[in-house]
From TrEMBL:
<protein>
    <recommendedName>
        <fullName>Lipoprotein</fullName>
    </recommendedName>
</protein>
Length: 123
């Protein structure tokens, strides 16, 4: 329950950061954490074959401090977050194809070639 409220609260907060075109997708976003405190909210659109990826503003500050400003660019980490969610959340191995800005700090990560993970590949 607590995670749901946090995700909902973050989604409401982030609606101002995401292009209005993608605003309705923010209501059903899922959290994804990477290394060094970097965290994102993601939403998969299986029809459009893309993942909306939005960073948590506070996690960006933690990431910058952790990496002393020498970390991976936000767009690269958005792709990693999308692929991680597809693998762990949907149990699919997919290849990222495109990264498109979708608002302030938000990205749409396109994907293709999905296949179910084999038992040995499951997270």
């Amino acid at each position: 329950m607590r995670v749901s409220l946090l995700v909902l609260g973050a989604a409401v907060m982030l609606q101002g950061c995401v292009s209005p075109t993608y605003g309705p997708r923010t209501a059903s976003m899922q959290p994804v954490s990477l290394d060094c405190g970097s965290a994102f909210l993601v939403n998969v659109d299986g029809t459009a074959k893309d993942v909306l990826v939005v960073p948590y503003p506070a996690s960006e500050a933690r990431y910058a401090a952790c990496t002393q400003g020498a970390g991976a660019p936000l767009a690269d980490r958005a792709v990693i977050a999308a692929v991680r969610h597809l693998r762990t959340g949907l149990k699919q191995a997919c290849a990222p194809t495109t990264v498109t800005p979708a608002g302030t700090g938000a990205f749409l990560v396109g994907y293709t070639g999905c296949r179910p993970l084999t038992p040995g590949e499951l997270p």
